[in-house]
Amino acid sequence: MYVLLAGLNHRTAPVEIREKCTFSDPELADAYKQIKSSHFIEGIVIINTCNRTELYATVRDIQEGQEFLKAYLMEYSGLSAEEFDMYCYQSDCYDAIAHLFRVSSGLDSMILGETQILGQVKEGYQKAHEQGATDTVLNSLFQKALYVGKKVRTETKIDQHPVSVSFAAVDLALDRFGSLRDKTALVVGAGETGELTTRYLMEQGVNSVIVSNRSYEKAVQMADLFKGRAVRFDDLPNELLNADIVISCTAANHCVIREDNCGDILRQRRGRNIIFIDIAVPRDVEADLSRIEGVSVHDIDDLQDFINVSYQERRQAALLAEDIISGQLDEFNQWLATLYVVPVITALKSYGETIKQNELKRAFNRLGKVSEREQMIIQNMAGSIVNQLLRSPVLNLKKIASSNQGHLYAEMVKKLFELEPDHKKEEYYASFKIGNQGK
């Protein structure tokens, strides 16, 4: 069983490419059904956030699995082969597992050590599990990844500063206005990100906060929490007449603030400055609104310049985190090596035994009657030849099993000898739990 990864993130692709690869909940359910129906894929987990879309899969054939994941992402997103190669990445086995551990630890985030990604990884895994899309290997892998993420944060304190994309969005507004004390902020979206954003706005002393959400009840709950005011989603455009800052973070799969529903109202401001900070993917705010006098529109990629990259403490913590990840990676790969190597070794020995028995039968048929002593000598000689021929491949496979090349050697031996490992044996080894997994 092999672990594969295919995806893209904020480092490899701009927001207009990333938003093509995002999944709404209904699309996610359909994706799991379609992918699991393929005979190339044994299990699948999709991590889907504003900064990344990543597909983690288990397969029995690496090349077929990689080709399927690439074809699926291209078909779903509409990316061409050239665009896929430009913006997306694919990894297998050791590298795919190491990447997931770094993601769950916050080391691959836009903001080093940010806290939200661990919850997003957990949520992505839970959704896949609920859809029946995972298998024993992915269950163990993601439980281990969540454990690693928690361990890194506990032992390194990498997330001790309250930094996030929400923080960067408020920092951008602060940079534009200098002070937020006399400003009115409109937060569109009442989820976790919206709540965190509102908290940072309040800390910067905004004069008033307005909350809008498709579920008016959720908007009221969040507005009450911060002594703000809730407005119905349909009334949102009217609030743009007086707002100074709009931070939008909904889960909509299309723009909710557009020329056709907000353009005329924004023109009624007659050039008074208003800043839209869109931290949703897909984007909430139509970029062309910036053509209106006084209107500026920023998307999530614009926040990079406002993320303080001089967090020396976080950088030091990241070095400690890499050591933790390395140790946990070795432990997980030692467990996973049994899935790569043990069935191949068993199949290789069975292959040798089959050849030995067939040749002995043929030899005895040709020799006719032989003594019991002669029969034993011939059998021992045949067994010795097979054992000596297989000794080095078996020992080397065991030796290299837990390295980042172990799966490649196992796959090579399997193909060279045309072996068919016992999949039930793989499932047997996979059923053993590995130590120190998060729940």
Task: Compile the SSE list and pairings.
Blueprint (H helix, E strand, L loop, with lengths): L1 E8 L5 H4 L6 H12 L6 E6 L3 E8 L2 H16 L3 H7 L1 E4 L1 H11 L11 H15 L5 H21 L8 H13 L6 E5 L3 H12 L4 E6 L2 H10 L3 E4 L3 H4 L5 E4 L10 H9 L6 E5 L16 E5 L12 H56 L4 H29 L5 H11 L6 H8 L9
Parallel strand pairs: 5-6, 5-8, 6-7, 8-9, 9-10
Antiparallel strand pairs: 1-3, 1-4, 2-3
Helix pairs in contact: 5-7, 5-13, 6-7, 7-13, 8-9, 13-14, 13-15, 13-16
Pfam families: GlutR_dimer, GlutR_N, Shikimate_DH
Family: Belongs to the glutamyl-tRNA reductase family.
Pathway: Porphyrin-containing compound metabolism; protoporphyrin-IX biosynthesis; 5-aminolevulinate from L-glutamyl-tRNA(Glu): step 1/2
